[in-house]
Amino acid sequence: MNKRVYLDYSATTPMKQEVLDAMMPYFNVSFGNPSSIYTYGRESKGAIDKARDIIAKSLNSSPDEIFFTAGGSESDNWAVKGIAYANRSKGKHIITTNVEHHAVLHTCEYLEKEGYEVTYLSVDEYGLISIDQLKAAIRPDTILITIMFANNEIGTIQPIKEIGQIARNNNVYFHTDAVQAYGNMKIDVNELGIDLMSVSAHKLYGPKGTGALYIKKGVKIHQLIHGGGQEKRRRAGTENVPGIVGFAKAVQLAHENLEDHIKHITSLRDKLITGLKEKIQYLKLNGHPTKRLPGNVNYSIEFVEGESLLLSLDMVGIACSSGSACTSGSLDPSHVLMAIGLTHEVAHGSLRLTVGDFTSEEDIDYVIEKLPPIVEKLRQMSPLYEKVKGGN
Ligand SMILES: *Cc1c(COP(=O)(O)O)cnc(C)c1O
């Protein structure tokens, strides 16, 4: 009766025990301010240096290119506003997509009010941008291309290396929001031609409220948080030492076990995709069939409403999410589902199930057992479904 299955790893992940253990001493034993010169301070400072090394190594970057922030949203804001403000003498044009996370989208909309021009590239039915459209969008006054690595709703992975190449050829900065990709695939910032990259700890089994921005050496960027001289005078504020230590531990674990992690969640994802497809009619898999995050399942379930699904699933202990209007906090369904061309009705019935390290085969079996009767029951209340069935 008390079974609980968590399938919302793209929203946040539980911290690993090793991560928690690594963090603990920095709350009350080695609690010094890293800026203090006595031993307490030096212990904290040393822990941050070590964390920076680990994170830099995981990306094939150097430690002085890693800047700690309070999470993915701050990193996105810093990258987009920081580049916009520092390079406005060159131009005020930014290129992004209409499927970005709101931390990028709303920042771009804010900059538009300040006189910047933003091109929002559209995506195809799988959520992929067009390289030709990107090339055509570049202008002499373009200063930044910001395109996410992998989408948080439908899991689609963009052609990052090609985008990096185009940015380089045109002398335009390239920022990518890699919050969903980090820890779920190999990322080498040099090989991919990335100038700035946002990552967040709580999406890869680390603590909430901690993230980082990778800033390639030589990139011209303004700072957002003014105050003390932390983070090489580019991001003020006493460092979140336990958070940073936990973040690095999570990254280290992710880096060491990447192959196994990908294998594990890919097989669970595919089991879920196949299992549901076999038992439920009128399903549409959103996102790309192969260029997709290893843990992401996003189905539109026709003739049902996302919020009713979530509530019914919650009653049997299953936690997942939906792109329906009620859950997106507005009258419209998710902008990502609209961008891939779904109708309002189909988007309202979307369900995102994201698996992770602690998901088991039994969890997947449980969902494949519980979801189909819930869908059937909800569909019985849909006049549209009755009509479709009657027509068969
Ligand atoms: C979660 C998420 C963010 C925001 O990160 P926070 O650390 O929660 O601020 C940004 N972009 C993407 C793609 C995300 O999934």
TrEMBL record:
Residue numbers carrying N6-(pyridoxal phosphate)lysine: 203
Necessary cofactors: pyridoxal 5'-phosphate
Pathway per the UniProt entry: Cofactor biosynthesis; iron-sulfur cluster biosynthesis
Enzyme Commission identifier(s): 2.8.1.7
Binding-site residues, pyridoxal 5'-phosphate: 72-73, 152, 180, 200-202, 238
GO MF annotation terms: 2 iron, 2 sulfur cluster binding; cysteine desulfurase activity; metal ion binding; pyridoxal phosphate binding
GO process annotations (BP): [2Fe-2S] cluster assembly; amino acid metabolic process
Top EC group: transferase
Protein family (similarity comment): Belongs to the class-V pyridoxal-phosphate-dependent aminotransferase family. NifS/IscS subfamily.
Name listed for the protein in its UniProt record: Cysteine desulfurase IscS
Lineage: Bacteria, Bacillati, Bacillota, Clostridia, Peptostreptococcales
